[in-house]
User: Which sequence fits this backbone?
């Protein structure tokens, strides 16, 4: 048995695939490539394949991670070479590395994700900088959104670890943000940008640029030189 950790990008052509659809795409591609994908035991075997921090539909990324178990050893470079010919062009396989079978799951290690959100914007760069600074200095950011048939209310501020203005040009601004992403809560970039602007926005694009994994023994969100950032 071998376990590989694969980094990949997700482009415009597949950004509307659901998490389950993306898992099926991976499984079908590996079957077509003749790769020795390992399966769980029992009456309904499942492929030993998991993705970190499932990406909401409509968002592109250059920082997605997958853990894949194979039933026999295969060089990571050979794995990528076989798989690339069976994947759509909009799914970019970047690199792969072998990891230990007992390494904790991706879901348990991810503590934050970074995004770049681009919006058409009537504010000046100075006004945008001021809005970002005010949001970071706020002690709380009350927020409500509809969930199912009711309203869900919470304080958004603990979910925002950092935020910065990337650029403003041609009537559009791009805002970078690092949001919490773990079992205790995950920030939604579209909701954060709405709170920042003070009104509903339809982003031109949302792009995930990085996933941050905690080091074993370091609390989630703790700053450590050993923390791994993918992207």
Assistant:
């Amino acid at each position: 048995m071998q376990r590989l950790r694969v980094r990949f990008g997700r482009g415009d052509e597949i950004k509307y695939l659901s998490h389950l659809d993306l898992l099926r795409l991976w499984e079908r591609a590996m079957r077509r490539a003749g790769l020795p994908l390992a399966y769980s035991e029992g009456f309904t075997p499942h492929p030993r394949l998991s993705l970190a921090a499932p990406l909401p539909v409509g968002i592109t990324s250059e920082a997605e991670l997958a853990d894949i178990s194979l039933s026999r050893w295969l060089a990571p470079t050979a794995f990528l070479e076989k798989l690339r010919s069976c994947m759509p062009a909009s799914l970019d396989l970047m690199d792969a590395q072998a990891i230990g079978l007992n390494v904790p799951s991706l879901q348990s290690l991810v503590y934050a994700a970074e995004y770049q959100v681009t919006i058409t914007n009537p504010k000046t760069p100075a006004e945008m900088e001021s809005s970002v600074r005010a949001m970071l200095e706020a002690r709380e950011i009350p927020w409500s959104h509809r969930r199912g048939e009711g309203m869900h209310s919470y304080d958004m501020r603990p979910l925002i670890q950092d935020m910065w203005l990337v650029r403003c040009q041609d009537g559009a601004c791009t805002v970078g943000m690092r949001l919490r992403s773990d079992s205790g809560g995950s920030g939604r970039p579209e909701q954060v940008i709405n709170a920042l602007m003070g009104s509903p926005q339809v982003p031109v694009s949302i792009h995930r640029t990085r996933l941050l994994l905690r080091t074993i023994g370091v609390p989630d969100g703790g700053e450590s030189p050993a923390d791994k950032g993918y992207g």
